[in-house]
Amino acid sequence: MKRVYWLGSALTLAMLPTCSMAADNLTTLYLSATGKAQATPTLLTANMTLQAEASDAAAAQAQVNAMSQRVTKEAAGSPVHLSVQDYSVAQSENKAGATHWLAQQTIVISGKEAEPLLKLTAKYQSEGAALSGLSWSLDDATHDALMRDARADALHHLQADAQQTAQVMGMHVQRYKTIRVETPYTPRPMMMARMAAAPQRTDDAQTVSVTISADVILTP
């Protein structure tokens, strides 16, 4: 469930420079308000690394390529999205001075359903993949909807503050000038575990915020 609330507002009054008789009656009000919107996390993401060691680079690469093809095929029939990303091959020496090669490839698995994702994660771990992170966050559609809600909330409060300020000063809002929109905060994924055990969906909401500022022209 989405929750929307107002964070706060700030205002500054400044008289416009006198340019004509009409300008003498204008006052510029600088006003800002911040709106927030919240929602329960909707997207679970697992970051994993496929890796293989061999005495030569080609062999290490072949093993990782085979693992990558297998996990991609297994994920194709499930409700999760798998992305194959960074790839690296490096040479190193053990304590005895023997040279070996290590090939690695990063895979990112994401989905709105925890159970099928965690089953795949556990399967890949049993086959030698390393789990580096598991986190809840907001999917793009939910995040965009929250941004719209937060922006609308900020605008409503900015308008209300402008009307209230004008009324207290015995003036009227003529128009809004130079409206600015800022998005100072983006929700970060919430890390849940570094193992295949299923994380519970947290009740802590993820929050997005939007700040709206404007020069408001007031008249008597």
Automatic annotation (TrEMBL):
InterPro entries: 26kDa_periplasmic_antigen (IPR052022), SIMPL/DUF541 (IPR007497). GO terms for biological process: DNA damage response. This is Uncharacterized protein. Pfam families: SIMPL (PF04402). It comes from the Bacteria.
